[in-house]
Amino acid sequence: MHIDNSVEAASFAYAKKLTPPGVFGHVIRCFYFALALLYTGFPSGTPGVAQIGFDELALRLYHTMLLHDLGWSNATVALTHPAHAMTFELHGAFMAYEHLHAAAPNLDPFQVGDIVESIVLHTSGWSSGNSSANQILMALSAAFDVGGFNGTGLMGLDFNKLFNPKTVAEIEQAYPRGDFYNAGIAVLDREFAEKPNCLWSHYPGGVSVLSASCNIPVDDPLKLNALSKDLRVGPIVSKDPRRRNGIAPEKDPHLHHLE
Asked: Where are the annotated segments for Disordered (predicted)?
């Protein structure tokens, strides 16, 4: 597969320009956390997951990770975008879709569709259903960078079984967390105040469960800020070494399924 480096550079530049610095570090860490999971061999031989070549998956993963938090942007072009009133996942996904069509016209509908859909769904944390390899890597990496080994409670997984602390420490040393915590809190505040029906409002167990877990009244206008308790303030691993319409459906030509 031919990879056009100018396309990757365009997504990098676009994300860096629009994403707040602390959040940009987050998207870069997510990419490397996903690569760490790929190093284990996933999704090779994984039941129920359509198989995909490494180069193809890495291509989709790169664009997905870099562009997945465009909805967190404070730039005028983002705040005035026609999708700005939507939940940030959809807002950012529309921006990513437009960017890819302009900067990466050689990507086919399946590639663009997987990238954009993975951005839309990356905070949903469904307990069942089907996800592409790209989608699950996006969701796992984002949840891990936000919550660390304790997790956010959204994925229902033991991250201790997925990530090696040494690898995590190396990634965090190369791409420090900076002000990601403060940037994240600011986004949550804005999201819940301006978009009360956002995807984050569908926290498993409902608002009352979420609020009770942090002793916040259900009628508190900032009740959903309880999610902030899961945002990492410091590194995940301490620096201290001691601690259809009559048209036949198409199939993604880049995938094959295990028998």
From this structure: 237-259
* Strand ranges inside 151-236, DSSP E: none
Helices 5-18 and 21-39 cross at an angle (nearest 10°) of: 140
181 in a domain, yes or no? yes
Asked whether residue 258 is domain-assigned, the answer is: no
Question: What 3-state DSSP class applies to 52?
Answer: strand
**Which amino acid is present at 30?**
C
Does 1 reside within a domain?
no
257: nearest Cα among 43, 48, 58, 1: 48
Could you tell me the mean pLDDT of each successive run of 10 residues in the chain, 259 residues long? 72 95 94 93 79 91 97 94 94 97 94 96 76 91 85 66 92 92 81 82 55 40 48 66 54 71
d(CA 194, CA 188): 10
Q: At what angle do helices 54-67 and 21-39 cross, to 10 degrees?
A: 160
Residue where the block lists tokens 């959903």: 224
Residues 104, 51: contact at Cβ < 8 Å? no
What is the domain range of residue 67?
7-242
Nearest-angstrom CA–CA distance, 232 and 136 = 21
Q: What is the pLDDT of residue 230?
A: 55
Q: What is the pLDDT of residue 194?
A: 86
The answer to the question of residue 254 being in a domain is no
Within its chain, how far is the Cα of 148 from the centroid? Answer: 14
Rounded Cα gap, residues 55 and 2, in angstroms: 9
Count structural domains, the chain: 1
Model pLDDT, residue 220: 44
